[in-house]
Design goal:
Distance between the termini: 26 Å
Shape: globular
Helix content: 25-40%
Order of helices and strands: EHHEEHHEEEE
Radius of gyration: 15 Å
Number of helices: 4
Oligomer: single chain
Largest sheet: 4 strands, antiparallel
């Protein structure tokens, strides 16, 4: 089973969850940080309770062997969005794409490959005058918004 963590998502070791072998420390982290865990099309998703910056979310995902969610097609994006909306989460979560290297060229964080599918809101992305808009947040409606990575989601 692949481990993917949705936006303010963090990954959890699927084998540990299924086997019930999480350490007490990991159990405490899960109870304090994660509101919901779901399996969608064979991939484990974990949704954080609290909003954090992109950097903190990414580090938390990596700590558990995962990554921030990288939507690659509409069907998966819709499934994740519907699951997220159903859990009553806050307004947005991080998407694992950035345009750090070339403004307007959005690539996956884990591979650096260019995105071939996007789901921007109307009139987005917006070039940021100070170059801060390098991260993407997906809102409950499923549309993407670019903005500074120091925002929280």
């Amino acid at each position: 089973m692949k481990l993917i963590f949705v936006a303010f998502v963090a990954a959890i070791l699927a084998e540990s969850i299924e086997a019930g072998t999480l350490s007490r420390a990991d159990e405490a982290i899960l109870k304090n940080n994660f509101a919901y865990v779901a399996t969608i099309d064979g991939t484990l998703y974990s949704f954080k309770k609290k909003t954090t910056t992109f950097e903190i979310s990414s580090a938390l995902c990596a700590e558990f062997g995962g990554k921030i969610w990288e939507p690659k097609d509409e069907a998966t994006s819709t499934s994740v969005q519907e699951t997220f909306r159903g859990m009553g989460g806050h307004g947005a979560w991080w998407v694992g794409l950035n345009d750090n290297e070339v403004e307007g060229t959005w690539v996956f964080d884990s591979t650096g490959e260019a995105a071939t599918w996007t789901n921007w809101a109307v009139d987005v992305p917006v070039p940021q005058p100070n170059g801060d808009g390098n991260c993407i947040r997906m809102k409950k409606d499923g549309f993407w918004w670019d903005g500074p990575c120091y925002y929280t989601a």
